[in-house]
Design a protein that fits this description.
The structure holds two protein chains of two kinds. By secondary structure, chain A is α/β, with parallel strands linked by helices. Chain A is built from eight helices and seven strands. Chain B is mainly beta. In chain B, 10% of the residues lie in helices and 41% in strands. Chain B has a five-stranded antiparallel sheet, with no helix packed on it. Chain B has a four-stranded antiparallel sheet with strand order 1-2-3-4, with no helix packed on it. In chain B, strand 9 and strand 10 form a beta hairpin. The two termini of chain B are 35 Å apart. The chains are: A alpha/beta, B mainly beta.
Chain lengths: 200, 433
């Protein structure tokens, strides 16, 4: 990059990246984009960091564009990303929090979607996958009910190079496939604020 | 050595901050247009109606919807039509200021931490300790005797996994500012329909290093909109709410003075006419007055007023005429022939002095003594201000932590305890695979 050019920004984030499977696939698919995986668990995020370092050694020049952060995404997303910074945001196989009392802890909720809309650029894409049908319906309802998100058409989804990675790239996804589980995929685009939404 | 010390802490650190019921702290609201006052302490509310010169205690006839626990939030609506009250008993009550009767009650599912009206006075926002902000419509109704938790309330926004400490709506009704325990201030665009939620965030004001305790919008004389925030990190900060830019940080304590002791937490803020900001600090018997610099991007200390009885103010409010009122707790000193010492709550009043944004004590004249108990406020002279600066006084006059602020502090966990807590966590199981 030119000496006085502004530093490139992280554009993709994998929330709850687990063992880093998705991020590692994305790193070679989009070699000129910077991306981060965010993981709450200490030991798991340490593992991902080691995995990325090992890949950088075995594949010189590659995997320089991905990294893992140990953090609590539910609390600190706005601390890491500026308004409209991300073009892709991933939530693969999030914790279902089955008990009704814990539903407010789910990573996709009406409240949190406002924050995700804030950090996503207009046209940016939010991907969700789960093998828990009730959670899939929950996420679908939350996203459909949010005025700043619009569902991607089936055709658009087919054309998205990321689409196959949603179920095949992460360790969770591979496990679901092995067990012949059902996956619910809900992918939405961040749209501009409708003119009638806010008080002007 | 250190390890033994840590083990001691581990054994003894079984209590949580929130076990004991929090002490009552007086609440105050000033009706901007008329200068009427409302004071709440424990579960009572007393008002002084400046329009009719009448003081009274507000009464709820229906026992099942009477406040029974500490009222933490008290707020006149922007044009004085209503007074709202809420707190630990989860009741949100709307009082009509002409009849002084409660015209609507709602039941929150959790304790209420903050309330705010929209400028149109159509909606009341309230927040709880789950970080949720909800809205209810201000229309009088037949108050039923059995209230269902959450009935009539709509979810507006949420600060996930956090406690919302304050809500403020900007005077033009276009922005909602919400502050939380995790150092964040969020500015959301006001939706046309408050029953469907505020989904569009305008900015985050990030910069506080500890919980944010209070917010105030300030419209400068030049007509610019600012946001002022106060926090547990001992700072008052000035922001541009539209883009979240931090314009200035006013530090109550310097870094050296903060070492070893906890920062002086800001407990209340109020913005007034003529670019002034009044500040109250936890456990500190003074009202501070800050002034927005003419350039509009800095806050400077303009005056300090020390309250009698070492009374520590807990809430502040301005009226349109520029009068500033504060409610405070403090022990009256022993006097001759007095059998009972009172510990308040007291009210101090300051009035504008000249036209350069300065104030003077007016407790004797602005507060009719038979209705509210006044406490004098003495201006700290410039020489005194230099000699006994804030840093010195904050350390020597600590009167004990106010419990609700205590509830916002995060438990300090030593290394040993941190590792102990991880022993049973799921990610530890990775090692055993």
């Amino acid at each position: 990059p030119a000496e006085n050019a502004p530093l490139p920004l992280v554009r993709f984030a994998d929330v709850g990246c687990g063992f880093g499977g998705l991020m590692i696939n994305l790193a070679t698919m989009f070699p000129s984009e910077l991306m981060v995986g965010m993981e709450l668990r200490d030991k798991v995020s340490e593992y991902v960091k080691e995995r990325v370092l090992a890949l950088r050694r075995t594949h010189p020049g590659q995997y320089q564009n991905c990294a893992c952060i140990r953090t609590n995404s539910m609390k600190y997303m706005p601390n890491y990303f500026r308004q409209g910074q991300l073009t892709k945001l991933f939530f693969l196989f999030p914790d279902p929090h089955f008990k009704v009392a814990n539903h407010r802890r789910r990573i996709i909720t009406r409240s949190l979607l406002a924050e995700y809309a804030y950090i996503l650029a207009e046209g940016g894409i939010l991907y969700t996958v789960t093998d828990v049908p009730e959670l899939g319906e929950w996420m679908s309802r939350a996203l459909e009910g949010h005025p700043l998100f619009e569902r991607l058409s089936a055709e658009a989804l087919e054309l998205d190079p990321v689409y196959p990675l949603l179920t095949q790239s992460s360790e969770e996804g591979k496990k679901v496939e092995r067990n012949e589980g059902v996956t619910c995929i809900n992918v939405f685009r961040r749209i501009p604020s409708p003119a009638s939404l806010n008080v002007i | 050595g250190d390890v033994d010390g840590d083990e001691e802490i581990l054994k003894n650190n079984t209590s949580t901050h929130n076990d004991d019921p929090p002490e009552a702290i007086p609440a105050l609201s000033v009706d901007y247009a008329s200068g009427s006052l409302a004071v709440a302490y424990g579960s009572w509310i007393r008002i002084y109606d400046a329009r009719t010169n009448i003081g009274a205690e507000l009464l709820e006839d229906n026992e099942s919807i009477r406040h029974t626990e500490s009222i933490r939030c008290l707020q006149f609506s922007p044009h004085g039509k209503y007074l709202a009250s809420s707190g630990d008993d989860k009741l949100v009550k709307l009082w009509d200021t002409s009849s002084w009767k409660c015209v609507h009650s709602w039941l929150s599912s959790k304790k209420v931490s903050a309330i705010a009206f929209t400028p149109s006075e159509d909606w009341l926002l309230y927040s709880n300790k789950f970080g949720e902000v909800l809205s209810v419509q201000c229309v009088p109704s037949e108050t039923s005797s059995i209230l269902t938790p959450g009935e009539g309330s709509h979810l507006v926004l949420g600060h996930c996994c956090s406690i919302v400490t304050d809500i403020q709506v900007d005077p033009r009704g276009k922005l909602i500012a919400t502050a939380d325990r995790d150092e964040k201030v969020r500015i959301s665009r006001m939706p046309r329909d408050l029953s469907s939620g505020a989904h569009d965030i305008a900015s985050f004001c990030l910069g506080h290093c500890s919980f944010v305790s209070c917010l105030a919008f300030l419209t400068s004389k030049a007509g610019e909109l600012f946001l002022v925030s106060g926090g547990g990190d001992g700072t008052v900060r000035l922001w541009n709410p539209l883009d979240g830019r931090l314009l200035d940080t006013f530090e109550l304590l310097s870094e050296e003075d903060m070492e070893g002791s906890e920062a002086a937490a800001v407990v209340a803020l109020a913005s007034g006419p003529k670019d002034s900001v009044a500040v109250a600090i936890q456990g500190y018997p003074e009202i501070l007055l800050l002034q927005l610099a003419p350039g509009g991007d800095k806050l400077a200390l303009s005056q300090r007023f020390q309250l009698a009885f070492s009374a520590c103010p807990s809430r502040l409010g301005f009226s349109e005429s520029g009068a500033l009122f504060a409610v405070a707790l403090g022990d009256e000193p022993e006097g001759e022939g007095q059998n009972e010492k009172s510990s308040g709550p007291w009210i101090a009043a300051l009035k504008p002095h000249g036209d350069k944004g300065l104030y003077s004590d007016a407790s004797a004249t602005l507060l009719p003594s038979e209705i509210v108990t006044a406490v004098g406020a003495t201006l700290v002279s410039t020489e005194e201000m230099e000699r006994t600066n804030l840093k010195f006084l904050a350390r020597t006059t600590r009167l004990g932590l106010v419990v609700p602020i205590q509830g916002l502090l995060k438990r300090k966990i030593c290394e040993l305890e941190r590792e102990q807590r991880k022993v049973n966590r799921n990610d530890k199981k990775l090692l055993n695979k």
